[in-house]
Amino acid sequence: MSNKVPSIKKNLPNIGFTPVPSQETDNDQEEDTVCGIGGFTPRWLQKFNSPKVFLINHSILGVLQGAFFTYLVGCLSTLEKRYAYESKVTGIIMISDEISPVLFGMLLGYFGGKSHRPRIVAFGMLVAVASCFVMSIPYFIYGRIRNFDTEDVRHLVNYTKYEICDLKEKDHFCEKSPTFTAVSIFFFGNFLKGFGSLAFYTIGTSFLDDSVKKKNSPVYFGTLFSLRLLGPTFGFLLSSLCLSFYEDPFYDPGYSTKDPRWIGAWWLGFIILGIAIFIFSIPMVLFPKRFPGKKLPSELKNKKETKPEPPKSPIEQLKDMGKAMKRLGKNPILICHYLGGVFRLNGLIGYYVLLPKYMETQFRQSASVASLYSGPAGLVGMIFGIFLGGIAIRKFKPRPRVMTGGIVFAECFSFLALIICMMITCPVYQMTGTSSVIQPQFSLNNTCNTDCLCSTKVYTPVCGPDGKSTYFSPCYAGCQGYNKTDGKEVFTDCKCVHDESGIIRVGEATKGYCNSECQWLITFVVVLCVGKLLSSTSRVANALVTLRCVDPKDKSIALGALSGVFSLLAFIPYPLIYGALTDASCLVWEKSCGKTGNCWIYDSDKFRYLLHGVSAGFVFLGCVTDVFVFILSPRLKNLYDDDEEEKKEPMTERDEVEIISNGGILGVFKTGVPNNSFNPLKDEEKTSTPL
């Protein structure tokens, strides 16, 4: 053999060897690795053909995706007030976002992982664009709210917009309620957004992991997750900005943002987000199926080195997907990891959804200011925590036991932060003349204001002459007159107000809450930031556990299954759970035309204990399941290196070359033979162009 080979090599130039085209031709390879779409593949566009550019564009879309969710969260209390529905209905709207992952998560993960993944992501983003515009439709149908305008209220003194004690029944024109139609539109819009998010997270994350070396994955994921968290921050800031304008920005309602009647321009942010997502979805279409120089997935390698197989029928593909699901179901690390994520998401997402409303009620903030504080509260800390966690894993490459132990340790800080925040409280408003807020029979009515026939249609708090007693409205304070001098609104002839000694007398009441500022808001925000900074250092490690505890070919379907599990067991239950505990804390409901609307006043202590207690309980259960992942962690292999794959597959992704001369096959050689193996074409390959 050794005597024949040199003669072959020596005669190669004279024989004129011609490579036999492989199953994937050069044109196919070029189409898979070139930026562009169809015939549009300009040379200048190839400068952007790299995983780093994909990371930047993907991260920007992640920012906008996260902004949609938190923008909606920041507007929830405004939407409840505008369309008069309970927090339970809000829970139903939030659930619609998670129907898509339950229905399509595994299918998209399995079939989408075998398709042109960047274009699948782009399609999902276009669906998200449609959802943004759908969410704004109710405003263009119904316009601004008019129930608080003088011309829409009867039996009131004609020179005031406020309910006063005029011994007449207070009622409003009972026009057809827009609640059902508006809620239906919000439900459908959020459903569309769920499909867009599913494609983005399931397909985009696996594509990025396949496009970089394993040792670089922590840095890429840390950067991606950190930048994504700018989205929730941006969403809260955007809601704060939009809600500072009235629902109709060109109309002056005559009262400020601190007035409970204020309805901000909730629809404006959805339009802004829809336009932005559309702009950054266009580059995603142009990315290649895989980046140049990146190895083909092992299943594609096997197809290239064997005879072509006939395409599988849909039934056979579904059977293959069933086999993949069985492999995932028999993976104890993955199951425990899924459960831990389910518990944490139930607690933390539910907590952050209610955080703006909690700040409104506990710290006496407007919806705009509450959204402003809710964004930085924890999210800024999470950005730095995730980025530092990714850098640390990239630098130190901790063993599986150390990495999973760090996850348990870091997640405990979320639990501690929630317990500490539960202890931070503000004095409760004194509503003199009502039953105590700790009693279930809390009522705004008493013997003094019964004949005023007041309603709870509009919440207009007024402060009594003692400077500390707040009343729901001038009507419940027994006020019969009104005047406005030097910009100060005062209600006169109030027969149900109390003086400093607690005695009922006739006096005046001023519009707004009594001066009882709470100084604990900054402390509350700082504790949240520190807790999230420390706990979020485990996010990259959690992502690595998900991707490395399964077979590489099962990554996409594992992420798809993860989306389905999280939606079914976390994202669907938490709106119902937290909506119920919010309604359970309500003291005064809006009631008009025989229907119950949104909640005006909450039992702040009960709300505080329920919100933090339930959230801390979920996070604690998540920490317990993380302990089981820690125990099973020695089963995790090959966290950072591609060496094992290279040993199993010593050949590169280049095609086989069949050497032909005079119509006959002289030999078949691999172009990627290892250095220690015999390769008669070694010298030629050094100067030849890769096939």
Task: Give the low-pLDDT segments.
Answer: 1-29, 148-159, 435-440, 643-691
Q: Kindly, what is the distance between the CA atoms of the first and last residues, rounded to a whole number of angstroms?
A: 27 Å
Average pLDDT for all residues = 76
Class by SSE composition: alpha+beta
> Hey, roughly how much beta strand do the residues contain?
5-15%
- Cα radius of gyration in angstroms: 32 Å
The percent of residues in helical segments reads 55-70%
Number of strands: 11
Main sheet attributes: strand count, strand direction, barrel closure = 5 strands, antiparallel
Q: Counting H and I runs of at least 4 residues, what is the number of helices?
A: 24
